[in-house]
Design a protein that fits this description.
154 residues, four-stranded antiparallel sheet, two-stranded antiparallel sheet, 2 helices, 6 strands, 23% helix
Length: 154
């Protein structure tokens, strides 16, 4: 592919508790408009979120009876779900613009309450450390690059 840039990445990570993480990203996946998908799978169940279906969660309960097991789609538009109560009637989806509004409200609320906003600049620094380790690993064709996360407060 001479002369063309590749906009894709995939890496694995061993988390501090021993869990394995698999991360992949690309802007080249045809048909995907904004599929920022997060999926967590464990020995008791799974949960998944896809930004293209931002008002839904997929949930699998590993304790369900075999004859009724399967993923459930949970609509998060009821007033009991965080943020949904501040907007439209039950069943009316929230959009991208609502997320930005809530980010600003959360930030201002935390600052006015003298609380550290979450996520914080320290969290962003930790993410940058992970991304730098991925770049270093790729540049050195290394199989593993350890990331030391400094959790000390500044």
């Amino acid at each position: 592919m001479t002369g063309q840039s590749i906009d894709a990445v995939a890496f694995t990570a061993e988390l501090s508790g021993g869990a394995l993480g698999v991360f992949e990203a690309t802007r080249l996946a045809l048909g995907r408009r904004n599929a920022n998908r997060i999926e967590i799978n464990g020995d008791r169940g799974s949960v998944a979120f896809d930004f293209e279906r931002m008002n839904e969660l997929e949930y699998f309960d590993g304790t369900d009876a075999e004859d009724s097991e399967g993923f459930r789609r949970i609509q998060v538009t009821d007033p009991v779900h965080p943020y949904a109560a501040h907007w439209w009637p039950t069943g009316h989806g929230l959009g991208y613009e609502h997320l930005l509004t809530h980010q600003v409200v959360d930030l201002v609320t935390d600052i006015s309450g003298r609380r550290q906003p979450s996520p914080s600049f320290a969290s962003a620094l930790q993410i940058q450390r992970v991304l730098a380790a991925v770049q270093l690993s790729a540049a050195n064709e290394s199989r593993y690059t350890k990331v030391s996360l400094n959790t000390a407060k500044r």
